[in-house]
# Entry
Amino acid sequence: MIDCCIIGGGIIGLSIARELASRGLSVRVLSRDPPRETTSWAAAGIFPPAPRHAGETPNERLTSWSDRLHHDWSRELRDETGIDNGLFSCGGLYVAIDGVLMQRLLHAAEEWRNKGARCEVLDVAGVAAREPGLRGAGDRGTIVGGYFLPEESQIRPPRHLAALAESCRRRGVEISSGVVVQSVDLHGGGIASVDAMHLGGGRETVRAGAFCLAAGAWSGPLARSFGLTVETRPVRGQIALYRFPKPPLQRVVNNGLEYLVPRQDGRLLVGSTLEDAGYDAGTTQEAVERLRNVATSLLGDLAEATLERAWAGLRPGSMDGLPSIGRVPDLRNAFIAAGHFRAGWHQSTGTAVLIADLITNRPPQIDVAAFAPNRPRTTRDPLMPR
# Structure
């Protein structure tokens, strides 16, 4: 019998597996999808600044701690596996298309400064100076100003996932893809085993000392098998990938909830949508065309750009905008890490350490009370579709 079974093979599940294995536990990961079909692989990998500040919320505390851990993990993964996950501070521009939105950005800039983040308010000329690729948008009146966050970072999700998986394997973690957990055997106040179906054929019973549910948008339905109600409503996000002869931008550009993320190889991610589409992770022509219009409005004619591909992922939304991290009530050996919505990548490292602390009976390094799986939920994240 293994020490711990992780249900879910995305960024949260693999991070937890690596952390547990680094503490000497035997771990198995059960993933319904292969790596390239997970929502984690589909992410853009934008990390806004995460400064510590006096009035930080529990969610901000988790993010700031995770942000620091990411830099440690990035170095460790590169040294161990030889894979560079591309984490670096590229800086992020936030632009406004009219005066009303500029006033909102000015308010947001003041909030960033109050938190201790470096933030530079820019007029049109300042935006062009920071990002020459937007000079045309300024000339056309498409943007009227914005602000710049020099501490904003980006990471390459496929590379980081590959490094995580390799690190897990070197630590003895068994990763099984194409496996769907269908039922849970409860016994003696805990989980004795789970019944799993292999999509390629066959079934098996998996026994472990502890079980952690980290299956992203699929965690809600599975949590009911644990006797727990946790909303992880799937919120679809579509992204388009363009290839340019040379990089059109130097920095991440944010326009409301939409963004352009330049890669150093000349590719550009354009995202993203927020859609209530159930568990449909397919792309639509309408959304891809809208994303093209987003890029065109900021960069002008895309005649030199080639659409390489488009994809979609299902973010695990939560009722109150907070993830559920902790022990499942009334089950001695069941844990959950789900509902991170758009922050899953940024919060993955801290979440992994918290879950590993709980499983190994160490005091958590930050207070997890706000993330309790059975906490009252009275508000709704305004970004979630109704």
Remarks:
- Confidence is low (pLDDT under 50) at residues 382-386.
- The chain is about 30% helix and 30% strand.
- The CA atoms of residues 66 and 279 lie 28 Å apart.
